[in-house]
Amino acid sequence: MSPESKKLFNIIILGVSFMFIFTAFQTCGNIAQTVITNLNNTDFHGSGYTSMSIIYGVFSASNLISPSVVAIVGPQLSMVVSGIFYSLYIAIFIQPATWAFYTASVFIGIAAAVLWTAQGNCLTVNSDENTIGRNSGVFWALLQSSLFFGNLYIYFAWQGKTHISESDRRTVFIALTVISLVGTVLFFLIRKQEDTKTPGEEDSTNEILGDSSSAQNKMTRAVAAFKKSIKLSFTKEIMLLSVTTAYTGLELTFFSGVYGTCIGAVNRFGSEEKSLIGLSGIFIGVGEILGGGIFGLLSKNNRFGRNPVVMLGIVVHFIAFYLIFFNMPNDAPIAAMEGTDDVAYMIPSKEVAIFCSFLLGLGDSCFNTQLLSILGFLYSEDSAPAFAIFKFVQSICAAVAYFYSNYFLLQWQLLIMVVVGFFGTITFFTVEWEAAAALVARGSDYSSI
């Protein structure tokens, strides 16, 4: 197998592994609050929103140390161990206990930071400036296929149900735990890249992937990775991209947790309200897969760079927010177990609700594929620290959003995303223009990015 084929193989395995793990985890996140609402008349008194807030809060803090962990353990083993913790979190729902639920939320927050830092490192190591756009798109399309498969099951399994029984819950979460474990095992198929540097030439990628067994060398690499994270945090490019990243954290919370809860709370959807959560997830996944696939395939021929894709993303999201504002009752995110009989500015429409799900997924893929691409391009030699900062900002904003989702009406959640999304788009444009100018100055073709 040629080196390029080997790299593409690694990207595909990476994407398929994440697809299995997040088929389980994203489906779990999408239905968690609905399942928990049906449990809260028992001894269990947890909150899906609070759990997600804990996960993303710990996730954000853990990104400060995750480059050091990946430097010591290596990206492959880091992803395997993290995958095990994802599986344990999902397994908690088989027989829920409040203390175990919140404890697992803390551990999965740590695991998520390590997993995504290792993923960013693996993506960058297996790419160059000519393939980073394609590989980002391929990975994103495979990852977001997870939304399709898990939610397709939920749609058919919960069709016509207004209450989720203990048997229904256990069946779903046993299956999701097994799926997550399959994805974890697949990480072992990723093949290590051979060192292609000349003797004496080093970069942070080699530091991360080094084979030295010396504990002192590993600690040196860990400290160096931590210092690079702090140093990169205060660069102009990272600070500007942090606004865009913050927006992806807010809208991630909305489409992965809040919007499904809104749909499930609308009593006017009748007996289909619970199965519609699954259908919503499917169409979010269709939007994600379509966006990731198209932008990955077109990246080699895109002479205009990343800005048009990001512009498409924000326009698509603003249309979705406008339609959701008109279609969904204002109290839907915080409705009680009985749901809500309120209406917004139109009679709630299932078709509009599902169309908005598709738009949310498509817009999200626009932002995330381009952020992965520009980070891999700008920080090819500092990939682990750069991706750790990306996930730090994204996760802390997701944690804040999950926290206020317990209290804010729908209109205020939408307004926050509109404002942050507008400014995030402008800051991304600024960084992209500077990257294009630097590329032209080097004599490279702008379309190669």
Automatic annotation (TrEMBL):
GO terms for cellular component: membrane. It comes from the Eukaryota. Its main location: membrane. Gene3D superfamilies: MFS general substrate transporter like domains (1.20.1250.20). The chain crosses the membrane at residues 7-26, 46-65, 100-118, 138-158, 170-190, 238-256, 276-297, 309-328, 386-404, 410-431. It is found in: Membrane. It holds the Pfam family UNC-93. It is a multi-pass membrane protein. Keywords: Glycoprotein, Membrane, Transmembrane, Transmembrane helix. Belongs to the unc-93 family. This is UNC93-like protein MFSD11. It comes from Spheniscus mendiculus (Galapagos penguin).
